[in-house]
Design goal:
Layout: H1 7-12, H2 17-26, H3 38-51, H4 56-65, H5 67-70, H6 80-89, H7 93-108, E1 118-126, E2 130-137, E3 142-150, H8 155-159, E4 169-171, H9 179-187, E5 191-195, E6 203-207, H10 215-223, E7 228-236, E8 240-242, E9 245-246, E10 253-259, E11 265-270, H11 277-285, H12 288-300, H13 311-333, H14 341-350, H15 372-378
Parallel strand pairs: 1-4, 4-5
Antiparallel strand pairs: 1-2, 2-3, 5-11, 6-7, 7-10, 8-9, 10-11
Length: 379
């Protein structure tokens, strides 16, 4: 009998198992393990994320029910107690390393000059008082450098420990309002775009020309969701933060005042003194893409509901959810029929246990066909 791989099995083919096994050995993930290997733990959790399972019992029952369909992909049934224990005790570093490898593969598929690299930076609150910090590349649609911390921990804690890419552009909101952090970005040759607080004074030294528009042009821009540049000025931030502390961001910065489509006025600040003002405004507008990423992950990968209560279990689930996201991106890039990311993930969820290739998600499931000798025996 010919055996067909399920859609879930086809997704697993994008996993570099040699890398996974090396990470398990490095972190001794399977040391003194008799029942559930880290590979079985990972495939069970990955299936749970993709299928939308909201409990360990649901994952265990589904894997048992589809055991025959998953046999070719070496996906085995698991016990609930063993899976819960593994989530609480197995090293999270294995999943963090696998995510870093997969996201690196996705980034390498779209190489660009450093001057064109954009990193959006933000954090989102999760259940059980946890917060997920992320960098995000909007051009490649890839999350990067995830960090998981307590909800009350300041966003700057993440920003101060991340590795900076010289020449890249970092875009962030008021959660990272710190002159020391801005000075660090400037020192490393990075461009940054963020907002100025209303009460921050700027000593203006040079006013750049802004193309004036009439009321009709303003109305057209508002209808198209475009920003309207109101002013463009080069100046210096306050020299001192307190009576005895000098501002580390001593270089000149640029303030661009824009009116967004809602009518609200924003004061943007950047260390790029040469780029067109509308480019800086568009970069800040793109920051909302990371908010859409957080919303997408919570809705489609069920990251709003945790399968365990321990910190280790929560971090494991978050990393597996991010791996699932990158895995879907890699699988979508390998096929040509489905253009919409939302349609693709919906089809993946619907067809996880069906015997078909990812290229044929829109076609009926394949049915194993017996050879002629077996057909004669049955007759």
């Amino acid at each position: 009998m010919r055996m067909y791989c399920t859609v879930f099995g086809a997704l697993l083919k994008h996993i570099p198992w040699s890398v996974f096994d090396r990470l398990v050995d490095e972190h001794q993930g399977d040391q003194k393990v008799r029942r559930l290997s880290m590979r079985d733990q990972f495939t069970a959790l990955l299936y749970g994320q993709l299928s939308g399972a909201v409990s360990l019992r649901e994952i265990v029952g589904a894997l048992e029910s589809h055991h025959q369909a998953f046999k070719r992909s070496h996906v085995r049934p698991v016990q609930r107690s063993s899976l819960a224990e593994a989530n609480a005790k197995r090293p999270v570093a294995v999943f963090a390393g696998l995510f870093a490898h997969l996201s690196g593969r996705l980034m390498r598929s779209a190489r660009r000059p450093l001057s064109q690299i954009v990193r959006l930076m933000d954090a989102t609150h999760l259940l059980r008082d946890h917060k997920l910090h992320l960098l995000y590349d909007p051009c490649v649609d890839c999350p990067l450098d995830p960090r998981i911390g307590r909800a009350l921990s300041p966003d700057l804690t993440f920003a101060q420990t991340m590795n900076l890419e010289a020449g890249a552009t970092y875009v962030f909101d008021l959660g990272y309002y710190d002159y020391g952090f801005w000075a660090r970005l400037d020192k490393h040759g990075c461009r940054f775009v963020t907002r100025l607080k209303k009460n921050t004074s700027l000593r203006h030294v040079h006013r750049l020309p802004v193309e004036r528009q009439d009321a009709q042009q303003d109305a057209q821009q508002d209808a198209q969701g475009a920003n309207t540049i109101l002013s463009d000025t080069i100046g210096f931030l306050p020299e001192r933060l307190a009576a005895s502390r000098r501002n580390p961001m001593s270089h000149a910065v640029r303030e661009i005042v824009v009116r967004i489509e809602t009518g609200k006025t924003l004061r943007l600040v950047t260390n790029d003194l040469d780029a067109p003002a509308h480019e800086i405004a568009d970069l800040y507008k793109a920051r909302w893409q990371i908010e859409l990423l957080f919303k997408w992950i919570k809705q489609h990968l069920k990251i709003k509901h945790f399968l365990g209560t321990s910190t280790n279990a929560i971090q494991t689930q978050i990393y597996v959810a991010l791996i699932a996201y990158v895995l879907i991106r890699l699988a979508k890039a390998a096929q040509t029929h489905i253009k919409s990311p939302l349609s693709f993930i919906r089809l993946i969820k619907t067809n996880l246990t069906h015997t078909k290739t990812i290229q044929n998600l829109l076609k009926p499931p394949q049915i194993p066909i017996k050879n002629s000798k077996q057909m004669k025996l049955n007759l």
